[in-house]
């Protein structure tokens, strides 16, 4: 496994889209990476519900960072090759926290699981994604 490390700030800087949508990384580690996204009207769909695309972008971003931190030797990066999202609950206020952990770290793919929780600790979504290892 690679010895790559990132600070919270470097994680955001590595993906400008994260800064654009307001993702804040709180823990950046190979075993688990966490980030949060505050509810705001700009991130909502009809009825003040946080947009599913915002939730999926949060999960994809956190999953990408944890995959990057688990790159095998000689790899240069990752890219999402598949992602399955099960949206379970609407978010109408507060924030969403994402926690991503590697399930499988291989030579050609890294599979990560990301759980999204609302401010009350209730599960909002469960995401499993496969990241292709780039060389």
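Q: What amino acid sequence fits the structure above?
A:
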């Amino acid at each position: 496994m690679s010895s790559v490390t990132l600070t919270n700030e470097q994680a955001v800087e590595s993906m400008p889209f994260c800064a654009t949508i307001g993702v804040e990384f709180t823990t950046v580690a190979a075993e688990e990476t966490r980030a949060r996204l505050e509810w705001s009207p700009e991130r909502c769909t009809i009825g003040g519900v946080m947009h599913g695309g915002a939730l999926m972008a949060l999960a994809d971003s956190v999953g990408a960072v944890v995959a990057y931190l688990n790159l095998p030797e000689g790899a240069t990066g990752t890219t999402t090759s598949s992602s399955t999202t099960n949206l379970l609950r609407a978010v109408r206020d507060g924030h969403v926290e994402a926690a991503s952990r590697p399930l499988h770290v291989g030579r050609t793919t890294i599979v990560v699981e990301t759980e999204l929780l609302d401010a009350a600790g209730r599960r909002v979504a469960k995401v499993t994604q496969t990241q292709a290892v780039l060389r």
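Q: And what stands out in the fold?
A: The mean pLDDT is 95.
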